[in-house]
Amino acid sequence: MRIKIKLSCQKQPLRLPRHYNYIVQSFIYRNLNKKLAEKIHKKGEILGKRHFKLFTFSRIFGKFKNEKETLVFHKDINFLIASPITEILESFATTLVKKGEIKLNGCTLFLSGIEVLYSPEIKENILVRTLSPITVYSTLQTPEGKKKTYYYSPFENDFSNLVKQNLIKKYTIIHKQNSKKMDFAILPEKVSSKNQHVIFYKGTVIKAWSGVYRLKGAKELIGVAYDTGLGSKNSQGFGMIEVLE
């Protein structure tokens, strides 16, 4: 399930740094029920040693001007948030409706609408487009014994394999059953070097990829991808998709 949040800038323009993922993530947490926000932020859903927040959000959409490293929005903006846990979306929407007047990065915005977007038909072979870029990585160890993060490109086999493993874990948490025998693959359809993004999140460099991709495999896993995002760091604003077919 997903909702679209529509906000309007009336008193002053909204100014955001180019790398605004953390700002939007914090905005979401601040506008959830306090107990729910603490539960998601501190624990989320646990599988083994991994913690999953089980929500994702898109980039901010709207007309803007580029002022060096700052994006300036003068009018209406919108963004999407998705989760298989309806409580998260209901809490977020309810809080925004009650407030009406909302603060984002020091700017006063007004809620102009909330739209519930129902899930499209999920097929075993579909074309999707990213609404926020996908990041896939492994933590490796150098010969010196130091840890190093390696980010994969969609043109490497491990990209698809790691996305599949991630989806299987999410499916196991959501549906309380194993899905290791389910097939899944993600293939770059309209992706080039221009779709690579280097994003700073709280001082950490994250490499991610936008573009159009083909998803093949079990509808159950593709449905999880639609609700939770593809790849890692979904709750930091990565991996949200929309169906094109």
Task: Identify the notable features of this structure and list them briefly.
245 residues; alpha+beta; Alpha-Beta Plaits; 2 domains; 5-stranded antiparallel beta sheet; 4-stranded antiparallel beta sheet; 18 strands; 25% helix
Q: Give the N-terminus to C-terminus distance in angstroms.
A: 18 Å
- Count of alpha and pi helical runs: 5
Main beta sheet: 5 strands, antiparallel
Given this structure, which CATH class of the largest domain is correct? Alpha Beta
User: What is the CATH topology assignment of the largest domain?
Assistant: Alpha-Beta Plaits
CATH architecture of the largest domain: 2-Layer Sandwich
Percent strand = 35-45%
Helix and strand run: EEHHEEEEEEHEEEEEHEEEEHE
Mean pLDDT: 93
Strand order of the largest sheet: 5-8-1-10-9
Q: Give the total of domains.
A: 2
Task: Give me the Rg, rounded.
Answer: 18 Å
What is the strand tally? Answer: 18
Fraction of residues in helices?
A: 25-40%
What structural class results from the helix and strand content?
Answer: alpha+beta
Q: If you had to describe this structure to a student in words, what would you say it looks like?
A:
With 245 residues, the protein is of the alpha+beta class. It folds into 2 domains: 2-117, Alpha-Beta Plaits (2-Layer Sandwich), CATH 3.30.70.1890; 125-243, Alpha-Beta Plaits (2-Layer Sandwich). Helices cover 25% and strands 38% of the residues. It has a 5-stranded antiparallel β-sheet with strand order 5-8-1-10-9. A hairpin with a 2-residue loop joins strand 3 and strand 4. Helix 4 crosses helix 5 (219-228). It is globular and about 50 Å long.
